[in-house]
Design a protein that fits this description.
By secondary structure, this protein is of the alpha+beta class. The protein is built from 14 helices and 12 strands. The protein has 2 domains: 3-148 and 282-335, Triger factor/SurA peptide-binding fold, CATH 1.10.4030; 168-263, Chitinase A, domain 3. It has helices spanning 3-7, 37-49, 51-58, 73-95, 102-116, 125-146, 152-161, 163-166, 179-190, 196-203, 221-228, 230-237, 271-280, 283-296; strands at residues 17-19, 26-30, 33-36, 70-72, 168-176, 215-219, 248-250, 253-263, 299-301, 307-311, 314-318, 333-335. The strands form 4 sheets. The chain has a 4-stranded antiparallel sheet. The protein has a 4-stranded antiparallel sheet with strand order 6-5-8-7. Strands 4-12 form a two-stranded parallel sheet. The longest helix has 23 residues, at 73-95.
């Protein structure tokens, strides 16, 4: 339920909302605000026409339906649920009188572009503006609920007190099967008989890095901890550039690590990342709040798109068991 509203990985549209008095066929009605079928179809068309983004979505599950110009009912239900959640965000922003400043919009545009990658530019300009507005409203509500400021002084203060999160450590490693072999390689490297890169090519059993002289790449220490384990992270964080560790045991074998370089980018080049990191601290309170709002909202879903269900305190849109007997003529129709 939270996939889009928290991360905004998929697309959604507040431009889909009309007033409850409209005669336009509805996909859903959220506290009196109508999400029209035609607008839902337009959004689905935007997804289908963005081939790189469509391909990335299809890695997580079916998107297109079996019929020409149709979508999987589960995907349509997912997109509609995400739209419902964003309407709730929009309504709450208005109720709290949260101001969206030009700097908020600029930051949201940068975040949207970063989140979608190269696929972002393939959306129409009007759709990119729509997505930017959605990112801005979600971020503004997160900040309001979490009682944090995203003004530049607050972002700079967070950056300066969390430099390790933005410092990139580049390293290389040598993996060997035994402690004795690791000690031998360490002696060869530390005596200067062979450079670290040459020793990695000759001795390392790590097929992914040996050919590149053991180069692992660059990442913050937190990424080392999550990807390679806390022991590796502790060893790497204790090394100076050019320094080689003593041999130590890892799940992949006995290892020697060398830190190649350490760099901390200036605040101006990581503002988007700093903002995202600061707002991530509010994710739990934001999710809890939005769940409560959704459960108590007045939501009506067109049965052709599924039904609202509350289970274990979570609201979700369950797709129909089968597609409607007569699909809407637009290209965004649901399909099996």
């Amino acid at each position: 339920m939270r996939r889009l509203v928290v991360s905004l990985v998929a697309v959604a549209g507040l431009g889909l909302v009309a007033t409850a008095c409209t005669a336009t066929p509805y996909a859903a009605v959220v506290n009196g605000a109508v999400i029209s079928q035609s607008s839902l179809n337009s959004q689905l068309d935007a997804i289908a026409s963005n081939h790189s983004y469509l391909a990335s979505l299809e890695q997580s599950g079916p998107v297109l339906g079996s019929g020409k110009g149709t979508f999987a009912t589960s995907f349509v239900a997912q997109v509609l649920q995400e739209q419902i959640e964003l309407v709730l965000v929009h309504q709450e922003v208005g109720a709290r009188k949260v101001a969206i400043t030009p700097s908020d919009v600029a930051a949201a545009k940068a975040q949207a572009s970063q989140s979608f990658g190269s696929s972002f530019s393939s959306f129409p300009a009007s759709y990119r503006a729509q997505l930017t507005n959605e990112f801005a409203e979600v971020a503004a509500l997160e900040a309001s609920i979490g009682h944090v400021s995203t003004a530049t002084p607050a972002l700079r203060a967070y950056y300066e007190s969390h430099l390790a999160e933005f410092t990139s450590v580049c390293s290389s490693r040598i993996l060997v099967p035994t402690q004795a072999k690791a000690k031998l390689v360490a002696t060869i490297v530390q005596s200067g008989r062979e450079p670290f890169a040459a020793a990695a090519k000759q001795f390392s059993t790590d097929s992914q890095t040996a050919g590149q002289g053991g180069q692992l790449g660059c990442a913050p220490i937190a990424t080392y901890a999550s990807s390679l384990g806390p022991t590796v992270a502790t060893v790497v964080s204790g090394l100076r550039p050019g320094q080689v560790s003593a041999p130590f045991d890892t799940s992949g074998g006995w290892a020697l690590y060398r830190v190649d370089s350490v760099s901390t980018p200036p605040f101006s080049s990581v503002v988007t990342e700093v903002r995202a990191a600061l707002l991530s601290q509010t994710s739990t309170s934001f999710t809890t709040f939005l769940t409560k709002v959704a459960i108590h909202a007045h939501i009506t879903v067109n049965p052709a798109y599924g039904r609202i269900e509350v289970s274990h305190g979570q609201l979700s849109l369950v797709p129909p068991a089968k597609p409607p007997a007569k699909a809407a003529p637009a290209s965004g129709s649901a399909g099996a």
